[in-house]
Amino acid sequence: MGAVEFQDVVRRRRMVRRFTGEEVAPDVVDRLVRNAVRAPSAGFSQGWSFLVLTTPDERERFWAAATPAASERNMSTWLAGMRTAPMLVVVLCSKDAYLGRYAEPDKGWTDRDEARWPVPYWHVDAGMASLLMLQTAVDEGLGACFFGIGAGEVPAFREAFGIPDEWVQTGVVAVGHPADGGAQGSSTRRRRKPLEDVVHRGRW
């Protein structure tokens, strides 16, 4: 892919929140996850896992576990749209994989002390893998949305899918063919900040 095409992918990426009933082709599902594992990871730890849900039963089990019972926010419109996604990828990461990797001889640390880490790079790397899926979806002419599982719903989600203790969810990528009006989120109501407000050259 050339530079012009890549810029188009970056420019066109939006969070899509409503999808048509058309399924995502199996080869596209495979490309999404193959590209995700091309993301960088600290120490090449690759401490990520991807729970791919494509069947109606799998998706219904997810939403049954992950839908909040009650909320101060009215999420009914968001949920009605997101439940139309024919593909969900839950992105998980393993802190243990990173602590173990950096205790290996080539990294020089002799312990697994989490305090050595200024930020949780296991979630950072999982986020970069998620972005590659979002961009791949655009490149395939699809729409996608990254969202989180609420803290109150995490236990039910983990039980519903038998998630091992080592793995923690970073978020979910929903993918599908965008429906009309499927990108009506905050970006349509708020302007993008000017570059000079967010880029600091040389010093703050």
Descriptive overview:
The protein is of the alpha+beta class and 204 residues long. It has one domain (21-182): NADH Oxidase (3-Layer(aba) Sandwich). It is 38% helix and 13% strand. It has eight helices and four strands; from the N terminus they run H-H-E-H-H-E-H-H-E-H-E-H. A four-stranded antiparallel β-sheet has the order 1-2-4-3. 27% of the residues are buried. The mean pLDDT is 91.
Brief synopsis:
By secondary structure, this protein is of the alpha+beta class. 38% of the residues lie in helices and 13% in strands.
List the helices and strands and how they pair.
Blueprint: H1 3-12, H2 26-36, E1 48-53, H3 56-66, H4 76-82, E2 87-93, H5 95-101, H6 121-139, E3 143-147, H7 154-161, E4 168-176, H8 195-198
Antiparallel strand pairs: 1-2, 2-4, 3-4
Helix pairs in contact: 2-6, 3-7
N→C terminal distance: 35 Å
> Looking at the structure, what is the overall shape?
globular
CATH superfamily: NADH Oxidase
| SS-derived structural category | alpha+beta
CATH topology: NADH Oxidase
Name the average pLDDT.
91
Q: Tell me the total number of β-strands.
A: 4
- Which bin fits the share of residues in helices? 25-40%
Tags for this entry?
38% helix; four-stranded antiparallel beta sheet; alpha+beta; single chain; NADH Oxidase; 4 strands
